[in-house]
Amino acid sequence: MENLASILEAEIIHTNFIIYICVFACIFILTVILIFKLILGNKKSSQVILTKKQENYKKLKAINLNNNDYKKILYDFTTLGKTCQVNELKDEFYLILENIEKYKYQTDCIKIDKLTISQMEEYIQKLGSYELV
Q1: Domain boundaries, the chain
Q2: 110 in the Ramachandran plot: left (φ > 0), alpha (ψ -120 to 50) or beta?
Q3: Verdict on whether the full-model pTM lies above 0.70
């Protein structure tokens, strides 16, 4: 029994649980953030993303054809109409462009005739019935 060591003389090891608690808290917070990002990310992906043609069609539809700034109307209709073209209405669009060509390069205050304005309105309405991709 003389060879036995005393238990009281052994070194007592103290464990520090603060480090474990901090690591667990960090992992928990990162997991919660990841879950919220996944939930909110799905809501963002459900929003409709418009193509360039669809955006330009919205702008084309928003043109006020009864406005007095006819130069801007003609310019906007021409540029937006060219980007929104569909093959089925190509001939009608170029016919309208021929009709408005005489108004484009006038320096005086111009007034577009009602027939041309109605053709432009009809074209915009017909364009809306087609699938713009």
Answers
A1: 52-128
A2: beta
A3: no
Question: CA–CA separation, 27 vs 96, rounded Å?
Answer: 65
Amino acid at the residue 4: L
Q: Is 116 exposed, middle or buried (0-12, 13-18, 19+ CB in 10 A)?
A: middle
Cβ–Cβ < 8 Å for 48, 118? no
**Per-residue three-class SS string for 34-69:** HHHHHHHHHHHHCCCCCCHHHHHHHHHHCCCCCCCC
Helix axes 70-83, 90-104, angle to 10 degrees: 150
3-state DSSP call for residue 76? helix
Distance CA 31, CA 99 (A): 64
| Residue 28: pLDDT over 80 | yes
Residue 15 confidence class, pLDDT cut points 50, 70, 90: confident
| Tokens of residue 101, six digits | 């060509």
